[in-house]
């Protein structure tokens, strides 16, 4: 599969720059939104738990993906949003190998999908196997798992590093894509579809189904036992968190599925594609819309947290209330302001 959200150099959609402006603006919003998530969770103490730390890790992956998209469209020849051309040989090499080749794009896609899998795994064990949570999800194990995911995410797209290099043309930054074999885009497409899309989404869907069944069974048991309010509050908190994460997964499925379905029929956007419409202008515009939706998945998570995650909303208020009082008032006043903000 070609890049899931960026046009190749030979598939320029239109000479109009409005597409590039939208892509760049979307990327900036994504960077700011995910930075805000990291700031709030790391600053507010009552958000310091394993689940929220994993959400920070996911936000970092989404933020880097948005940053990569911004750099790509900032300097794309069809966009010309800014005259950008690294003059240093080393910078040109890095820019072409990492950005224009879409190496970082693929790496961040894998990182985003599999970091969301880690969040799902943590909630799955906490809800379905709570007695084994402390033993299975130690801090050392989680750190090891996260490091492995980031390493794998950067290893899988390594072949892209060798598809583009700095151009000898003074008017161009990078050369045209040079695939090592004609079957390279097809193999990448199949590999990405199964390991970057189908596998993680299937595993997460099954895990959330199992969690939903377990939560319903627990609610029924508490009702029969006439449990105390504290037990119900804990169960409701778990249900709300799972509901929020299911919304995140649902958004990913909808936004990514459209892009994959639009890309799979036409590996190469030329008249020589598998179908006649692969080289049509209408299909190219369809790909643009799908690319926008694909990128939007990295923008929407902070919005979901704001509307679906009550503790994050509280943390947002606390973070900014404490910031506004940082340089004034004593400790008691600040603590009182934080308490008011949480109400």
From TrEMBL:
The organism's superkingdom is given as Eukaryota
Domain spans labelled G-protein coupled receptors family 1 profile: 33-305
Q: Which Gene3D superfamilies does the protein's record reference?
A: Rhodopsin 7-helix transmembrane proteins
Q: Does the keyword Disulfide bond apply?
A: no
Pfam families per UniProt: 7tm_1 (PF00001)
Cite the InterPro entries for this sequence: GPCR_Rhodpsn (IPR000276), GPCR_Rhodpsn_7TM (IPR017452)
**Where is it located?**
Membrane
GO CC annotation terms, alphabetical? membrane
List the molecular function annotations (GO) for this entry: G protein-coupled receptor activity
Spans through the membrane = 22-42, 54-74, 103-121, 142-164, 184-209, 244-262
Q: Which UniProt keywords apply?
A: G-protein coupled receptor, Membrane, Receptor, Transducer, Transmembrane, Transmembrane helix
Q: Does the keyword Nuclease apply?
A: no
Q: Which family does it belong to?
A: Belongs to the G-protein coupled receptor 1 family.
In terms of PANTHER family, this protein maps to:
TRACE AMINE-ASSOCIATED RECEPTOR 13C-LIKE, TRACE AMINE-ASSOCIATED RECEPTOR 19N-RELATED
- Full protein name: G-protein coupled receptors family 1 profile domain-containing protein
């Amino acid at each position: 599969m070609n890049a899931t959200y960026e046009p190749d150099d030979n598939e320029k959609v239109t000479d109009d720059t409005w597409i590039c402006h939208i892509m760049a603006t979307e990327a900036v919003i994504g960077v700011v939104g995910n930075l805000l998530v990291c700031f709030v969770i790391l600053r507010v103490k009552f958000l310091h738990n394993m689940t929220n730390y994993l959400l920070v890790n996911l936000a970092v992956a989404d933020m880097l993906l948005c940053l990569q998209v911004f750099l790509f469209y900032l300097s794309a020849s069809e966009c010309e949003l800014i005259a950008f051309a690294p003059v240093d040989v080393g910078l040109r090499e890095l820019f072409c190998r990492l950005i224009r080749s879409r190496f970082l794009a693929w790496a961040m896609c894998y990182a985003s999908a599999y970091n969301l899998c880690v969040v799902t795994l943590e909630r799955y064990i906490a809800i379905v196997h709570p007695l084994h949570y402390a033993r299975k999800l130690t801090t050392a194990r989680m750190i090891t798992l996260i490091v492995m995911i980031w390493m794998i995410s950067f290893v899988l797209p390594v072949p892209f590093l060798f598809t583009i290099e700095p151009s000898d043309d003074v008017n161009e930054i990078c050369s045209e894509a040079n695939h090592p074999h004609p079957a390279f885009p097809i193999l990448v497409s199949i590999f990405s579809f199964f390991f970057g899309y189908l596998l993680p989404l299937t595993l997460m869907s099954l895990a959330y189904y199992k969690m939903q069944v377990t939560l319903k069974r627990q609610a029924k048991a508490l009702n029969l036992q006439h449990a105390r309010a504290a037990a119900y509050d804990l169960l409701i908190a778990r249900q709300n968190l799972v509901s929020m994460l299911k919304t995140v997964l649902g958004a990913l499925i909808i936004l990514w599925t459209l892009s994959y379905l639009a890309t799979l029929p036409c590996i190469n956007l030329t008249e020589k594609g598998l179908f006649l419409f692969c080289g049509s202008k209408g299909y190219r515009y369809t790909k643009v819309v799908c690319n926008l939706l694909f990128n939007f998945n990295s923008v929407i998570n902070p919005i979901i947290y704001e509307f679906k995650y009550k503790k994050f909303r509280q943390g947002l208020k606390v973070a900014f209330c404490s910031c506004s009082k940082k340089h004034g008032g004593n400790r008691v006043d600040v603590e009182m302001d934080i308490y008011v903000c949480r109400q």
